[in-house]
Structures are given as structure tokens and as C-alpha cells.
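Late entry, written up from scratch paper. The run itself happened at the end of the previous shift, but nothing got recorded in the book at the time, so transcribing now.
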Amino acid sequence: MARARTETVLTRRVPRTGEPSRTPDDLIVEEPLEIRLDDQLVGTTMRTPGHDFELAAGLCFTDGLLAEAPVQGVRYCATGSAVDTEFNVVTVETGGQAPAPAPRLSTASSSCGLCGSQTLDELADRLVPLPRHEPWSVEVLAGVPEAVRARQELFDRTGAVHAAAAFDRDGEVLVVREDIGRHNAVDKVVGRLLLDGALPASDRGLFVSGRASFEMVQKAWAAGFEAVVAVSAPSALAVRTASTAGLLLAGFVRPDALNLYVEPGR
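Output as recorded:
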């Protein structure tokens, strides 16, 4: 079973004043994960090892590859033993019910997922607007980043990973996942909910520790979240996507203030 891990290196700490010193520094490890759907290649993404089954299932779901086919199982390998492939190949199984996927042409880096391969029009063809829902408490939304921050263990050690989380209307954080890739962290959260039978994520919000890009919003829409809360800014396309979806979108979220870019019903 793959687990998140770090490597320790010696770095030369150079202060603005005073003498430099040698100090150990923990660096996050990233490795490629090959994802397959019913033994058909979907693509390869650079990720932080750990929660790989969630990542693979979540990516297949948010990218629309399952086409409503149920996940019957998730396993390592398919091209050899899990040990031989160093736990870097995962297969999502639907018993052949999902359509054959079109593989990505290149490896997705840790900073992008679809990398613009889907447009808003294509997304709207696949997804329908979310059902109307009750307004969210601004106080709850503003408190989510601090609640998630307390559970970002890998970030505390390395300062090099993003976090995504699912939370409810009371502000309770239900699932937290970390990864060097923002899109991977989101897919791990969605994958956990999918495997738990908790999708669509009605009365749930999605937190992302960085900016709210188009991809973060489309994944939230696909999973049925009602709100997206981001520490940083959204993109213009993310705002248009959230508006089309009927999804609340908040950015620059701090304990004392936030920006509401999309408020369904207002």
C-alpha cells in the first residue's frame, strides 16, 4: 500500500542577519500514478502517494469516465504485481459497464489535471445545474480554512502540499486530503465520498487551499457539492462555471472576511 512519505535533505539556512547554518528539511515525495479503468489506460498523474484508490476513483468520476457505471472495485497493478509496479498503477473496475476511456496524451503535472481539455460548453452537456438549495452561512464558510488547517499534517512537515476537504452546513470538516497537486487532493476527497456511497454531495461544501480554478469548480459540480471555498482567487472561467452550475463560490476566505463571487438565488 502506497503511503505519503518525505525525504530529508540538508539545506543551508541563510538569514538576513547572522550566520548561515545547516538544517535538515523534509521534502515531500511525488511519484507518477498510472490510472486504468477496466484495464484500459486513462492517463498518468504526478501525485503524493497515499489514498491512491480514492484518487483513481475520484478522477474517473469527476472526469465523467464512469458514465454512471458503479465502481465494483479498485486495486493496484493490472500490468504486473503491485510490488513490481511499486504501487504506482491503479485500476478502477466497473465490470466493463463504463465506456472505454480515451487516454490522455501526456502525463498530468502536479499543478494541472485536465489542463484545459474540457470547455464549459462540453461540461454543460454532461452535467445539469444543481438543485436549488438553502443559502450557506457566511460564518460557517469563513471558519472552514482554519478548521482544515489544523488537519494539514503533511503541510506542517513540508510546506509543499495542497489540501482539499468536504464540510457540512455546520462547518464540520468531514474529509481532508493532501497532495502536491490541487486537483489530486480534490479527487481524493471525491473518491472517498464515492466509495462511501455519499455522492452527490448535497448539503456539503468543498474547500481548496489554493486558487479556485475552472477544474476545481467542475469537479465540485460533478460531485454535487453546493459550495466551493478557496483560500485564494477564482479564475474568470471558474466564476462562469459556478454560475452555470448554481454553485456558491467564495474566494479569499479569511476568518474575518471573504469574497462571494457566485451566490445562487441572489
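The domain at 138-262 is CATH 3.40.140.10 (Cytidine Deaminase; domain 2).
(Scratch paper discarded after transcription.)
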